[in-house]
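Exercise 7. Predict the joint structure of the components listed below.
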Amino acid sequence: MKSRWVVGGGVCLEQVFGTWTRTYPEEQIQRIELLPNDDYAFDLSALNALDPELGTMFVAFDERFGNFKRMELMQLVMEKGFRLERFVSPSAIVPPDAVIGPNVFIGEGVVIGIGGRIDFNTVIRDGARLGAGVHLRSSCWLETGVLVGDDTDIGAHSILRIGAVVGPRVKIGKHCELGWARLYDQNIPARTVFDTRYEEPIRVYGD
Amino acid sequence: MRSRMHPKFYLSQEIFEREQNKIFRKVWLFAGLKTLLPKNNSFITRKISGIPVVIQNFNGEIRAFENVCLHRNSLIQSEAVGCRPLVCPYHAWSYGEHGEVKNIPDCRSVYLISKAEQQKMKLREFSLRAIGNVLFINLSENPFPIGEQFRPHVIEMLESSSNLYDSEVMQTTFHCKFNWKLAYENLRDANHPRFVHRTSLANDVTFLPFVNTERAAEGLRALPDTSPAALREEMKRFSMAAAEAPLSNPKRLPFHDMVERWGSEDSYYNWLAYPNMHIASPNGGYSFTLEHHIPIAPDRTDLEIYWFTTRKKTKYAFSSWNLLSHMHGSRLVTGEDIAIMEKVQAALHEAAPVPTQGEYEFQNRLVERWYTLMMETDHEI
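Solution:
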């Protein structure tokens, strides 16, 4: 019997496990919670009993540290030889020409426009809607209901919070956080953070 | 004991303007970070004491000019941080490293400005000094030496620490509804963290207020010498640099291995450069927050916050998110300070009671003695 392992934590872990349990009754679906220790590292000992040849894995984790913790866990399980699955909710609308990378999460009712490209480890939460030709680069996090207009490019590790409306034809640099509920209709430089706790955007200069 | 600080010092537009003329346009002020000016044509812009200023790298020479084109008064550089030649976007007048007008497109046919006249035109230049990677500006035409404003150990500690600042810098601004002086009174008040920051900063650091009766008594007496030199000498006492308090429970974070460390004490370090900059390293020299206070009006102060680590040993991909976690952590503490200072400002009115001062507030008392003399007499620095 084929196995599907859902590892990590947070709301996506429960959602993938629940959906796969209902969708694939003939397969063995296993939920394994892996959270960082006090020293911020993941303890992978719970995976030692698994044979990577017997199944596929989905890594679910929140957006902390610009999605880098989820990417770290993803890389760790890949180093152990696990193949990564993608998760597409049965209620999502994904056109046949869309390109969806490994460990991508596409939630309930999400709509991807034609020609969409979603790179690895990106999470699109329930109800988000993407226009045609949108490119979400790797390890992004789009919250519930986010709207992205046609031909918009979202940089890697960016976070779009509830209420963000982006595009069309806008380029959001990598490592941005669009946390103010508003229309973002101009290009945004990389490493710009709009957070509701701050009156002005937070910028990063230099490297 | 009653403070010398009558409410008018926090409310009056006339006093605000006097402060700008007698203090902010005379002393050395924090102006920016050299780490943001790494190459030719790198620049930063800001308003200092109401004057638009551009600080630009000209082949390694860093200079400060009034950021106003001599033609139609447009801002020459408009981004906060960037890299482009000193060329006005309005009609493309360009300027050289000494502020001279390098080129006026179609000068002879459109403007009819003679070569001799063009050669006389020059942007107003301001004195700039770097202490390590921290830039100070002086808007005066005859600036006094920066060593007359800060004590040698303040300069040494600022230079030593800032030489290790990383070049990746996070920045944002808070628009605060309080007078700038409240920020410095608050920064010198070691008795407030256990009340205002009870569940935040006070969990990690124990600040202990202490009484210096000799200094407190000194603050009650008139300044013995009110000459400009003596007033500058007195001002040196208002800036400090020190390991202020031990960390209760120093925590090892993953980024510590990725950066060099400044110093070796598990302490909360503080640098205060009166009248417009405060730096803290809340984790014993792994990262720094710089607070730049910009007086806008008697009851308005912009607070620019910078975060940076010490220099990276090697680049790591999540470094900007590391800075953001620092920013969010300090947002809590800064927000608590802003909230309490805005409450103080909101309560002020012309007939409000003059504050009652404790002996532990001896440092504030010394500043007030100097400040009120400056504001209420013709004495200058």
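Discussion. The two ends of chain B are 28 Å apart (CA to CA).
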